[in-house]
Amino acid sequence: MRVQQFIDHLSNVKRYSPHTLAAYKRDLLQFLRFCEMKEGESDFSKITPKVVRRWLMAEMNGGLRVDLPGKRLCAASGRRKLSSVRAFFRFLVKEGALEVSPVATVNGPKAARKLPLFLEEEKMDELLDERLAGSVNFSDLRDRLIVLVLYDTGIRRSEIIALRVDDVDFARRVIRVYGKGGKQREVPMIAELVAAIACYLEMRKEVVEPEHGWLFVTNAGNPVGTSFVYRVTKKYLSEVTTLSRRGPHVLRHTCATHLLHRDASLQGIKELLGHSSLAATQVYTHNSIEHILKIFKQAHPRA
Length: 303
Known about the structure:
Layout: H1 2-12, H2 18-37, H3 49-61, H4 75-95, H5 121-131, H6 138-153, H7 157-161, E1 168-169, E2 174-178, E3 184-188, H8 191-204, H9 226-237, H10 248-261, H11 266-273, H12 278-281, H13 284-299
Antiparallel strand pairs: 1-2, 2-3
Helix pairs in contact: 1-2, 2-4, 6-8, 6-10, 10-13
């Protein structure tokens, strides 16, 4: 009962996505199952920090994994699961069901922070100006535009899927984007992107019947899904890079990193990407430092 109230709160108040809601619910049910089966406790008020730590340790050791029994959980996944439980108990405290959260004093597993993967500017130029140049049919034009929008604007995969034709404001040269939590922001369009979208919309008229308003569509005229956008980006990024990851988020990282390389402000990049805090944007400074060191080593006579 309480779990569903919490999920409803995340859905109706926080406006979390269905994917995020499913992850929260799955984590919480796993935690409560552990408390009942391993600790013999189902009363929220009697769950202690020690119980939470034992659950987290069991999760990290792989003892509770159903998909891959015995395989250790990575630190990032452990932190995510703990975050779900922490948010749930914080909700119970706020609702007056508990006085103190048993998770308040529990620290998550630490892990080295990985640098975001990105493509060099030369690789992006090769992809957009050579590999994807001269697109004449609808599918090629659409695929190039998907890559171009992801790179030029830095928006997320979920955000590009949610774009509607009316979100493109040609007069003001901006795209309205609806990000996490339903927050709206406006992202500027460069001249190249304006022209590409205008050309795409002309060909789109021949594909979409009746009109439903979604910007990106399949060859059959239906709105594209998450797997579609992933397949498109992986296909074309694979032609110019051997990075371990070649999904839409790499283009988001690439956009932010290239802007930072060209002296864009962190605050500006934060607003463009729709980050809730500057801390999330600061990870790109590491890539920028690596870029500067590379130039230094290549150019300095004593390096």
